[in-house]
Design goal:
Structural class: alpha/beta
Order of helices and strands: HHEHEHEEEHHEEHEHEEEEHH
Helix content: 25-40%
Shape: globular
Number of helices: 10
Strand order of the largest sheet: 5-4-3-2-1-12
Distance between the termini: 27 Å
Largest sheet: 6 strands, mixed
Strand content: 15-25%
Amino acid sequence: NGAIFSVVSSQYSAVSKMKKSFSSLISLSLVLAYGYYKIYQAPSIRHQVPLKLCLIQANIPPYQKWDEELKKVIIEKYILLSRVAAKKNPHFIIWPETAFPGFWEEEKELREKVLNLVREINTAILVGAPTLERNLSYNSAILISEKGEENFRYRKIHLVPFGEYIPFPRIFGFLQKRFSIGDYSRGKEYTVFTYRFPFVISEFSVLICFEDIFPSLVRKFVQKKAEFLINITEDGWYGKSPASFQHLQALVFRAIENRRYIVRSANTGYSCIVSPWGKIVSELKDDRGEKLFIMGTLTGEIFFHSERTFYTHFGDWFVFICFVFFLLNFMRNKKIIL
């Protein structure tokens, strides 16, 4: 953009225009060449056998999840979809954020239904569920082994302000009484799930809801050796708007930054699989091509990646250094410094 401006602007000399155009052309060529090289470079796959997984999208209206009369209906819907998914022989089934309609520890009957389902289909399931621990509530992801045993639990770290908690309660506490706002506690551990799949042991991490929009948070999971990432979310709040697709765009960048497959399971929204190069390799849609507010299952395959990218190693230092150079150049042009 700067090069185009310098070419058409009369305030620059012909020599200056030529220099700017040439430097911009070189920079653009280097970026395109690097991108081409990375896209077609042989990936650092740790295991040649792909992991076959199945995403469940039940399309439950968000406000129905806490309706006491609908809890059994909701869990039966997930059980039915999981049985359908199991017929495709996946290694792993993923339920979306807060798929379990109630607190995991309190709903004993519903919890047993889920555990019995896992034993019946003999397939591990990741369940999004609210949890209660030491009088604190969390937005969690629970991994249940094919034996019906809880293996790992991740508690959401980055909560949604005014949605999952009230920031500055002394100032905004009155909102809790007027609106239905959650009272979740913040998780503190960057959990990496370790699980023995039928052919290999792998490590992965879960991002809940909008945690995928924070590059530094996602990077920490990969630094702890997560070989792929799962995003479970509830995008029903957005309605039929572009917001679900806009949310997905952040996920694409996280996949590219860390060179990891990211699997996205939404209660309703846009469920898909994103490759380490930012390509959507599989997506859930119905016969009409609709992707939002539909019910179904999506089966796909991913590979385990162990590569650590420049961003995984160094984070935002490159951007920070670029900003410093820009600031110094700006100050020099404005004659703020010599």
